[in-house]
Amino acid sequence: MNRKEFLKSTAALGVNSLILPSNFLSSWLEEDPMIKGQGNKRYKMNSSWCQASTVSTPVNDCHEMVLDSKNRLILLTNETQNNVIFFDRSGKVLHAWGKEYPGAHGLTLFDENGSEVLFICDYLRHEVIKTTLDGKVLMVIPYPKETGEYSKKEEFKPTETAISPNGDIYIADGYGKDFVIQYDSTGKYIRHFGGRGKHDGNLLNAHGITVDYRQKEPILMVTSRMQHCFKTYTMDGKYLDTIFVNGAQVCRPVIKGDYVYSAALKDSLLGRGFVVILDKNNQVVSCVDGTAPEYVNGQLSKKIKAEKTWFTHPHDVCIDNDENIYVAQWNSKKVYPYQLIPV
C-alpha cells in the first residue's frame, strides 16, 4: 500500500478499522515528499523560517552559523552591509554588524573563561580575526610566514578554525595550501600539518575543522572536501583515520551529541547538495534531500546523490537544543537559512 492508497483507505474505513504492520508508519513517512532523511533523522522543511529584510539585512553567500549561550543564532555572510546577523529562535533579526569582511567564510564560537568570542576566517583578507560578540576586534592572525610554507599573504586563504580546550587555535587553510596551522591562545605559532599530497595525512580542500569530544581524549576532525571525506588527527597533528562520505563534497563537521552533521555542498553527479548525518561510529545514517546510504562490509557501497528538491548548495549547518537544523547556503540566489524540523 502506498501513501495515496493509505489515505483512501483511511477515509473509507476510518483509522481504527485498519490493522497496520508495525513498520508501516515509518515507511509511509519516508515516502512523504515533505519529509526528507532516513532512520531516526528525518525532517520537515521550513524555508520561510528567516524573517530578515533583503533591504535592511541583505545576504550574499550565507557561509556559516553558530548558536550562542543565549540561544541566538549567529549567521556569517560575505555581504558587507552586515557581515554578522543575530537571530532569535523564531527567525527574527535581533541586530547585525560588520562591514569589513569581504571574504567572510568561517565562523567559530568559543567560550573563553565565561566570555564568548568569535573567530572569523576571511580568505580575501588572508587573516583570521578574533572578536567579541558585538564585533570588537581582539586579535588578528595574519598569514603563517613562520611555517616556511608561504612566501606572501595571498597564498593563505583560511576557511575555518577550531579551538582546543586549552585555547589553542587551529586554522584550516582550505582555499590556500590545505595546511592546518596550530597557534597558542595568544596567536604564537606552534606547528602545522596536512597540506596537499598523496599520503593519508594530506588534505585536499581542507574546508572545515572541529574538535571531536566523543572519544576518551579529544581529537581533530578535518574536512578534505574534494576527497569526499573527513580525516582525524591527534591534537598535535598526527594522522589517525579517514571517514569516507562517498559522493559528498562535505563542508565543516558539526558535532551535536553523538552525531556529526555536515552540509554537503554538492554531489559528484548532479551538482547539488544535501545534509549528511553520521552516528557515533562515523557511519552515515541519514542524507537529508539525498539518497539513502547503503553499506556493504562497513563501507558505503554507492555514491550518495542529491534529490534536487530543497537545496542548491548547502554550506553549513547549526543544530539548536531542540535538534532543529539550520542550513546556510552558498551561491544559491542569496537565500536566507532554512530550518529543518525533526519528525
Question: How would you concisely characterize the structure shown here?
Answer:
This protein is mostly beta strands and 343 residues long. Helix content is 6%, strand content 42%.
Description:
The protein is mainly β. It has 2 helices and 28 strands. The strands form 7 sheets. The chain has a 5-stranded antiparallel β-sheet. The two termini are 22 Å apart. Mean pLDDT is 93; it is low at 1-18.
Question: Would you count the extended β strands for me?
Answer: 28
Shape: globular
Distance between the termini: 22 Å
User: Spatial order of the strands in the main sheet?
Assistant: 1-2-28-27-26
Count, helices? 2
Order of helices and strands: HHEEEEEEEEEEEEEEEEEEEEEEEEEEEE
Radius of gyration: 21 Å
The averaged pLDDT comes out at 93
Question: Which features characterize this protein?
Answer:
single chain; 343 residues; mainly beta; five-stranded antiparallel sheet; 28 strands; disordered N terminus
How is this fold's topology laid out?
Elements: H1 3-13, H2 24-31, E1 35-38, E2 41-46, E3 62-67, E4 73-77, E5 84-87, E6 93-97, E7 104-112, E8 115-122, E9 127-132, E10 137-141, E11 160-163, E12 169-172, E13 179-183, E14 189-194, E15 209-212, E16 219-224, E17 229-233, E18 239-244, E19 248-250, E20 254-256, E21 259-267, E22 274-278, E23 284-288, E24 295-296, E25 299-300, E26 314-319, E27 325-329, E28 338-342
Antiparallel strand pairs: 1-2, 2-28, 3-4, 4-5, 5-6, 7-8, 8-9, 9-10, 11-12, 12-13, 13-14, 15-16, 16-17, 17-18, 19-21, 20-21, 21-22, 22-23, 24-25, 26-27, 27-28
